[in-house]
Structure formats: structure tokens, C-alpha cells
Give the backbone structure.
Amino acid sequence: MLSALDDFPIHQVARPVAAPATSDHNAYDRYWFGGFQRDGDFIVGAAFGRYPNLGVVDGSVTIAVGGRQHSVHASVAAPAEPTDTSAGPMRLTITEPMRSLRIDLDGAQTGISAELVWTSKVGALLEDHTVMMSGLHTIVDMERFVQFGMWTGWVEVDGTRTELRDGEVVGVRDRSWGVRPVGQQSPKASPSPMSNAWFWAPIHFEQECRSLGYFERIGGRIWRGDAFRLPLVDPIQSITDPDALARFHPLRERLTFTPGTRRIKTAEFDLADSDGGIHTLRVESLGFQFMRSLGYMNPEWSHGLWTGAPRVGREDWVLADVDPTDLTFQHMHHTVRAEIDGIQGVGMLEQIIYGPHTQFGFHDIVDGAS
């Protein structure tokens, strides 16, 4: 059970690093990456996860461009060596921790290939610890850090290449680990929390980066809300100093939707600073992609799901043809144009809205706006 990591002084419990500290079925360790062309022409994404108690490693790469979205999925038996960050044709390389990472995808099996390089713009920021309970059952117990950065490289689909040029593609990534629903769930497990909403908006500005995120209950009650302003510093640090941050509290939002859907067109988010001053973040969608492309709510390629590994597959969608009431397509990422306190920027808006949120005019699980 020993691995290369055991030669470093990083142990948290009296077990080899490859052995998880918990026996929970839902233990996971995961990377997510997003990249957004500044004018909304395309969105790229990637994910890689290790599920030690399920014996599974999986990864996905996706691009939404020209009104279509294309995705590759790979699932393999987890190697004993946790530093092996590959899944079939996909390989994640941590070139320099917290500063530079690389994703390579071999297209021989699927017709989709990629070479993508991530470079950090600000230090990694550890968010508030997240715990979600359903009665006595722990659904989520996780840590996550987020980081803003830039992308270079390319993605090629069936011979058509999309270039990610230096300075033109902004991005954000997260690393999370702990416990959350993955793989095949027990029939006795608590059902997924359908009546919930989640909004997350990490935004790049010229001299700073900003982020807000929160859950919202039916009727508009916000919980686990946070928002930050991260100044750009030179030289770039690998980890953000919490004392250098300005922190805000999300108060409320005003949303407009594409009729017949829950897809956000524009949004305004009111935030309170430490002195009680109100700041409004305004965003406008320039384009979107579905997160089913990276395994979220995907019935065939769900995170940690045993698929008869090793297995590789491809999915393609015409964005305009996707049924807006399909439950598995409610998790979305938008490229957004943004403004706050008189400055303009570009970034991402993540949305998940399930249930009869009457504050938005919804009365069922996935009914659309009138």
C-alpha cells in the first residue's frame, strides 16, 4: 500500500497516504477546470477524480463551440499509486503545484484531442468548509480551494482545432476532497436535494478577481454564502493570504431567464461589505455549456461510477436542441460579461436550480420561465 507520497512528511493519520482516512463509500478527491474565451466564442472544461473506496478513477474533457458541445469521458480502475493522474487517454500533470498544470488528451479512440496548459493568476483560496446533512445522514463534508488563471493550448474535434491563445482565455479551477455522493448510491441513502439552488460567479477584472457563491432554499433563504475580492500581486503567490482579502456577504439576486427554460440571461447579485455598504455584481450570459459533459448528473458517466473499466466514450449535443426540462441538463456554466463598482470584467456563472422556487416564478422541479 506504500506509494511515492509516503516519502514526504505529509501524513495526517497513521496509515499510508494511498489509504483513505475514512471508509465512507463517497470519499473522493477531485479536480475541475474551466476556460472561457473572453468574447464567449467557446468554453472548455476538464475534470479528474479519484474515488479510493470505489477503486475508480475517471476524467472528462469538453468544449462548447459553434453551437455544439463535445465531450470525452474515461473511466479506469484506480491504480495503487495515487500520483498516477491518468485515466485512459487523458493525463493530468501537476507541473508546479498551485502554479501550473497540464491536461493532455489522446484522440485516437474518440476523434477529440487536446493539449491544455493552466497558469495561475492569483494564489489558491481555501473556501469555507462545507457540510450538508439530511437528518442524521451526511451528504457532503468537503474542503475546496479555488484559483483564477489563464489557459493556452488547443482542443481538436474531428480535425477542427480551437486555439486557446495566451491572454485570450481566462479560467478558474477548483480542487475539492472529502465526502459527497459519488458512484452507485445505496437505495437507503437520502435522496438528492432536488429543492435547492446554487450560484457561483468567479470573475476576472484587470486589477483583481472576485468570487461569490451560495446555496438558496425555496423562498429565497441564502445559506453557506461567501464572496471575496482577491487583489493581483506581483510576484504571483501560490496561496492567497487570507488577510489580503476583502470579504462580502451575499444578500439577494435578481435573475432573468430565457423563456421556457431556467437558463439565466442576466443576473444582479447584491453583496454587503464589512461596513454594511451594498455592492451589486451584474452579469450577462455570452454563452453556456452543460456540466453533464463532465459527469455531473450524467446517467452513464457519473463521478465514480463503475463502468466496466477501462472504458472510453464520447458525447455530442446541439445546444439549441437540448430539452430545457431535462433534469440532467440543469447544471450549467455560462461565460459572462460582468460589472461591479464601475469596473468591467469577464468570467463564469454556475447555476443549478431544482424545485419550486417561487421567488423565481418556478412551481415544479424543472419547469421553465414564462
Notes: The two ends are 57 Å apart (CA to CA). The mean pLDDT is 94. The chain has one domain: 27-184+191-360.
